[in-house]
């Protein structure tokens, strides 16, 4: 499966997650230095909790 399709599926699953502010790609894929066997590093940023 192509990386673009994998990332699209991940993003679609995460959309609408309560408090989620950003989804970021990190690691070698973000810097375009990945190899065919590289993993996918994804960071999730959430807003501050409210009481």
TrEMBL record:
Top-level division of the source organism's lineage: Bacteria
CDD domains per record: NT_KNTase_like
Gene Ontology MF, one: nucleotidyltransferase activity
Residue ranges annotated for the Polymerase nucleotidyl transferase domain, each copy included: 8-46
Membrane-spanning parts: none
Alphabetical list of Gene3D superfamilies matching this protein: Beta Polymerase, domain 2
Pfam families, per the entry: NTP_transf_2 (PF01909)
The protein's name in its UniProt record: Polymerase nucleotidyl transferase domain-containing protein
Organism of provenance: Paenibacillus barengoltzii G22
Taxon lineage: Bacteria, Bacillati, Bacillota, Bacilli, Bacillales
């Amino acid at each position: 499966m192509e990386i673009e399709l994998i990332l699209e599926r991940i993003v679609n699953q995460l959309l609408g997650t309560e408090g989620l502010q950003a989804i970021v790609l990190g690691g070698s894929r973000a810097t375009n230095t990945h190899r065919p066997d590289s993993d996918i590093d994804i960071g999730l940023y959430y807003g501050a909790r409210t009481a």
